[in-house]
Amino acid sequence: MKTLMILGGGTAGTLIARKMYKELDKGTWKIVLVDQDPNHYYQPGYLFVPFGMYTAKHVVRPKKNFFPRGIDYITAEVERIDADNNRVTLTDGRQLYYNYLVIATGTDIHPQETEGMLGDGWRKNVHEFYTYEGTLALTEAVKNFKGGRIAVQITEMPIKCPVAPLEFAFLADWYFTKKKMRDKVEIVYATPLSGAFTKPVASQALADMLKRKNIQMEADFATMEVDSSANVLRSYDNREIPYDLLVTVPVNMGAAMIGRSGLGDDLNYVPTNKETLQSNRYPNIFVMGDATNLPTSKAGSVIHFQMETVAENMLAHMRNKPLEHHFDGHALCYIETGYSQAVMIDFSYDVEPLMGKYPLPVVGPFSLLKSTWINHLGKMGFYYMYYEMMLRGIDVPLPTRYSLVGKEKTPTLNLENERTPKNV
Question: Which residue range(s) make up the domain with 348?
């Protein structure tokens, strides 16, 4: 019996386990999935909990509910991958062997990488919303905030879901307006990027939106330290941002086990062929989702778009055929802007976000690079699509490859239609 082993049971691991379970001959292959956490977290929902849009119960469910019944599921922590010998060692000493391996171990925050971040202010007035525990603590901080300066800060790129910090700033503007205390709250958005986003046209549009919402952007802010004693954020070029509440995105890194195994780069992301999604070093290893070093967003939609490439190319390699399926870097993101509106962006390795309609030309129903109510419904509705379709192996009717169909090939755009306090 041959073994396909999957490390990680989050979005990427679950999707590829279901896909390969359908494709592989059960008499020849078995699938072994290893993950240390029995809970599946809907990470896009972390953003909504502090603003009362979701409760804690919305974002956590048992992982076993979504795995195919015929796979071997092992709840354990991985100590090391010995890729030269097709072997995985668990922290309890067990050794597992594979013929093919999928690495889907994701990424996580590392606040200890920034001086002072884990100081006396941590989980008091220094918070993050990239973990379950973090978003619950931040919920209390937001609910009890009486006024002052909120600094929303990105420590270093890349990060999981690059638009999430922007969304937090936009939702904070909406939330405190709704509470009739926006005039008591100053919001600062500090980013190491030279603009609001990585793609130029979208970056300018989103920067304009920040300005219209009276959110100050501090660009090129390379965070050096958090001084909890003074409630000050400092950069390497000696700029300071005082805060009353710091909402930080700490350094993101891949799994420590990847580093211990000698398979990762400086941030423990696995060097991966950006088109075939095969490991650059080991042809029987494929890499998915946030665990890769690919130049695309670390987001759930990207995993969905990668799945077909991983499955088709892995099956081809098993049959000694060439890897002909190529991933084009397709990423699709909703950006919640408050006031029941959202922006949608659709882009790839080679094409930045354009205006237009998605997924169908003319009719959409979603508008690209425009702030609309329909986009907001799409953002909120994705929760049900995720749990009831994607994780259960039901095909989602979205095109995997990036397409210019319905796009307006022009660099001009205007996001002024988003709702503001005066017309709520």
Answer: 332-423
